[in-house]
Structures are given as structure tokens and as C-alpha cells.
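Input sequence (317 aa), recorded before submission:
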Amino acid sequence: MSKILCIGEALIDLICTDKGTTLQHGNHFLKKAGGAPTNVAAAIAALGGNVSLAAKVGNDPFGLHLKEVLQSFGVNCSHVLTSNDAFTTFAFVSLMENGERDFYFNRGADAQLSVSDIQQLHFNDYSIVHFGSATGFLPGPLQTAYTYALDAAIAAGCFISFDPNYRSLLFGKQQEVFIEKSWHYLRKCNFFKVSDEEAMLLTNTQNVDAAATLLLEQTQAVFAVTLGKDGTLLGMHGTTHTIPSIKIQPVDTTGAGDAFGGAVLYQLSQLHGSQIQDLSITQWQHIVSNANKAGARTCEYLGAMEAFKHLHNSILQ
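Predicted structure, C-alpha cell format:
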């Protein structure tokens, strides 16, 4: 089994449980471990994979909680560093009556993961390295460390996975910065996963087919465009294939994309390095079909980490 490394933010989601209210007027909040690469690492570990997370949290109860949750799944947290100078990052979210999300991001220790921290990693120990942190493109040490890590992982011959994880509430008017930085990774990775909305944003197109055509022309990677209940569009070797998902009764879609990504990487980790690069279209279709199941099953539970407790190898048969 190959080792996987996920790099990026580990944070606490504080979800307002007062329905239809703004954060200003909300009184009750539910604490959940989160951060996209953190979720992916937890999903991989829940499936039985050998995965480590490189991130930074505060020296506070919330940072301790994050490590505790990850370790309960079996994630190697030896590279989840603790900062004495910054608090653990928080994301406050409330779903308002009009369906919009009221969002406030209180950024702390995750931004402080630095190049010197990344230099302590031995990339030759890993076969797969996953970059899936939207905050990696925000100003701060993490942005520089992220770029350094990409170059180091490529130099070590690692299989590079990328998920841009666009969050409009994070980037606001800096959308072009996000797009520019994302393309740097799209062109250098071996596999990337985007949502249908992200695919159209990154390609400046009006539909998924047009976006996929441009992605096939401009990248060399195998890619997956997730389509929600309609499944996933797989792109490789100049062609696209739509792989259907399974029918479910959704409860909460949080973490579905991360479960999908984690399931893809878990399956790849079961192969030797040379096998990963030489997978056929049929093999990739099988991998994506299993990942669709993982993403769908995650939607049947409230909260990503709770859902991941129910991911097991039976969905990958």
C-alpha cells in the first residue's frame, strides 16, 4: 500500500443550528472538524489507507480536538504542527432563509504553515501527494509553502492530486487570482477533481461539455468533474465518459466531494507507482464509480466526519 500525504488547512467549522438566521443573530453552534484536505485524509484513513496530513493548528482545545478526531480515524498526525502564536482557524457558517450562506472566516494557525515546516517532510516517503486547500491560494506563508511543496513532490516523482475547492466567500473580488493559481496546479498535476461550477469558472465557459473540452486541450491530467446526483464526467486521453452515481436520500452534502477524492486516492494507493500512470479508461471508470458511491453515501449522514465513520471497503467492491 502506497503512502499518501495531504497538505493544507485543518480548521473548525462552527455551524449555526438556528435555522434561517444570520451569524449576528445566531445563538447555537455545532463544532465540527473540517478543512478540505483534512476531510480527504479522514476519508482515506476510514477506507483503510495509509495517509498523513501536513497542516498547522493552534495550541488550544480546538487544535487538540482536530488531532484527536484525525487520530481516531487513523490519520498520521506527526506533521500536524502546533503554533503557540496563532489560534486554530474557524469557519462560521449559517444557512439563511433565502438559501444563502452567511459566512465568516476567522483565520489563524492554518495560514502559518511555512516553507521551513514543509522542508521537514521527506517527499520520497510518499507515492501520492494531494493538494486540496482553497486557503493555499490566500496571502500568507501557506501560499508560499504550497508552491514549494508542489515542486518538491514533483521532484520526488510523486503522483500529484489537486482539488481547487473554490469558495466565493473566501475570495470575493480576487476570483482571477484564484483562477490563475489554480491553472498552475492543473497543468502540473496527474489527477484533478473539480465540481461542475468550478470547471466552468476555471475555463470561463457556460456549460460542462465546453469546460471539459478546454480542460482536455490545456491539461495532461486525468480529471473528474463531479455532477452531483448525475454522477461524474471522467476526462482522459482526449475523451470524456460520464459515470452514473447511485440513488440516495440526501441528508447533508457536506464532505461529499472530499469523500469522492479520498476514495479515488485510496484506490490508487493500492497500486504500485508505475501501475497508477498506466491505468486504462476502463480501470479509471471503475475507480470513479466506486468514488461516486463514497460521495453519495456521505450525503446520507449529518456532517462529513460522522459520514466517514460509515465508509468501508464494501463500497469499493
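Checked by second reader. The mean pLDDT is 92.
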